[in-house]
Amino acid sequence: MSVITGSTVCGVTSQPKPLDPPMVPFALAGLGLWIIAVLVMLPFRDELADAGHGNWFGIAVAGVLWGIPGGLTMVVHDRNRKRRRATSDSFKTGERGGA
Length: 99
Hints:
Blueprint: E1 4-5, E2 8-9, E3 12-13, H1 24-41, H2 45-50, H3 55-93
Antiparallel strand pairs: 1-2, 2-3
């Protein structure tokens, strides 16, 4: 009978791998949601302003504008992700990669 505590099973300790998913799909999904919010509120701008919620449209536009550099940052992050994985794999095998 083995006792499981944390990540130790039968005296063998293994650390879980950190998650490193591609981030571009998340950034594009967030940007898409802000764009949808802008398009939905566009015909109701005047009604929202009359009801005291005129800043909602501006917030959605700001979400789109901030999402663009955020998405570009995630493109660079994912590009570097491939390099990080290759580097960590070379450490595991004892090989040296590089230029």
